[in-house]
Amino acid sequence: MSEAAHPVFLSYARQASLVAARALAERLGTNNAFLDIDGVALRDTFPAVLQDAVLDARIMVVFVSEAYFTRPYCWREWELGLAPWHTLLQRHADAAALEQALAHIVLVMPEGEARIPSDRLPPSPRLQNWPHVGQLDVVAEFIGERLRQVKHSIGTTLDTLGARDAVAPVGGGTDLLLPVRPLVGRLVLDRAATSLDKEFVGRAVELYQLDELLRPGDGGRGGLVAVTAAVVASGGFGKSRLALEYVWRYQALRFPGGVFWIDADVVSEALEAQWYAVLRTFVPDLPSLAQFQALGGDVADELDEALRLHHDPEKPVLVVLDNVPEPRPCEALASLVDR
Questions:
Q1: 294, 288 in Cβ contact below 8 A?
Q2: How far apart are CA 254 and CA 216, in angstroms?
Q3: What is the mean pLDDT of residues 179-197?
Q4: Cα angle for residues 258, 263, 265 (degrees, 5° grid)
């Protein structure tokens, strides 16, 4: 922890919560609360000073708003604050440990009936009754109570978990990119399809926007409800690379059920073979595809049945359809099912 560390870090979207954040900082005292008002969000990279301030803090106060979850800098601060919880979640820690890993998070809700996407919040904070921006004296008192309970900084907690390197800054600052993570769950992906890791540069915002579109929401829990997004550009613009980097950086966090990568620009037989590989992740004792077809099996029907029987709604699966053939002028996009 640096000598100038503040025990409280205030994370907020400037246009939505600057006035409230300043008012809370005054209540807490300048030596206690870190409040960025220098406009660093106009830069291209996430400054090391902000990352250090988050990791040095014992309490992270988040001014929740609709704008907050659309700002790359806010998102990066939020991910850093949740890093201990994410680490324990991937290690299948028990409920008590997961609860403790969120003890440093304090939410300040907006007044009124503003729509806040609850899927941005872990289950425990989602269920709590948090104070709103009109109750800053209550917020300050609550922060004081948490400071008496939480003795270690976020960075120290990550050190204890051996996970500090996953969020370490690169050079003078760190990009908005999440680190590469091992894939989890059922996997159908070419082994050669690896990440560029730190050599992947310049597309952090696009990855963030893609995650905003694909992030599983409450509406998809409890059933087979697909959230979809399309990356459209001319050949050579790096669509496949963007999708692949998303897989390596977000799949373990957002889609723990697995990832199925399908190359759609192939003949129907090859496409069916790929779907059959997906089917065998659910029913591994199936025969070869040729034997399956000789017995009159239908891949689409069996896969549909396998999804309904074996898919865990709490563990969403990411399906990537790569190289979707472009239709000719005045033609509709061909169905991948019919092919």
A1: no
A2: 7
A3: 89
A4: 160
